[in-house]
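Notebook, bench 3.
Goal today: get a predicted structure for Nitroreductase domain-containing protein from uncultured Desulfobacterium sp so we can plan the truncation constructs. The sequence was checked against the plasmid map this morning, with no discrepancies at the termini. Length recorded as 209 residues. Pasting the sequence as submitted so the record is complete.
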Amino acid sequence: MEFKDVVNSRRAVNFFDPDKTVSDDSLREMVELAAKAPSSFNLQPWSLMVLKNSSDKLRLRKLAWDQPRVSEAPIILIVLADRNGWKEGHPFVEKNFKEMVKTGSMKDEQRQWFLDACKNLYGASKEKAQAFALKNTGFFAMALMLAAKSLGIDTHPMDGFDHDGVIKEFNIPENYWIPALIAAGYFPNGKTLLPPKWRKTFEEIVVKF
Ligand SMILES: Cc1cc2nc3c(=O)[nH]c(=O)nc-3n(C[C@H](O)[C@H](O)[C@H](O)COP(=O)(O)O)c2cc1C
């Protein structure tokens, strides 16, 4: 599928065919494509919980405004943004530094500079750490929905859920924030999509101050 067609045909769909599952191979491919999303210092502070079985999806639906697609979609992704994903000692911060040294974009002696830069940018306050986690994971989530569409899989991102309730119900460690839930699956035959939503124009988007 052409990139333009992927962008133009992606919709937050309201219905999913409950009998059509997303294969493990497709899920893997869509996640691996989305993993190409950019992130600050390549820290990639995102993770996903994948809910497939009905009882888990119903547990989540109770905490997600009873939105039917939460249990009807074959897969629900709980998108997780790691607020600690910039800290010294964090496994992916350490892995990232090693990889940067391996590929020549950092030298061993720059380690302290790198750790200080992360701390100054993201560790100065709770808000900074939250912004770090959410902005990077937002790019990942968008890439995930476009990757899904390119494979013929429809999605629906959702904010309508009890954040702290979901954290508690699914034993999610407190370093994570959930920017969205994403339902994924296939739009069913016999249903019609709602008309496309309005979008801001170029002139409305580009501003001067
Ligand atoms: C972060 C985020 C949260 C959203 N939360 C919900 C939600 O809880 N329920 C819902 O019906 N739609 C939700 N949406 C879908 C939007 O309403 C939808 O993307 C928007 O109206 C544009 O429609 P389109 O994606 O089909 O172009 C959410 C979208 C985003 C990006």
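The pocket of flavin mononucleotide is lined by residues 11-12, 157-160, 180, 197 (CB under 6 Å). The chain has nine helices and four strands.
Flagging this for group meeting.
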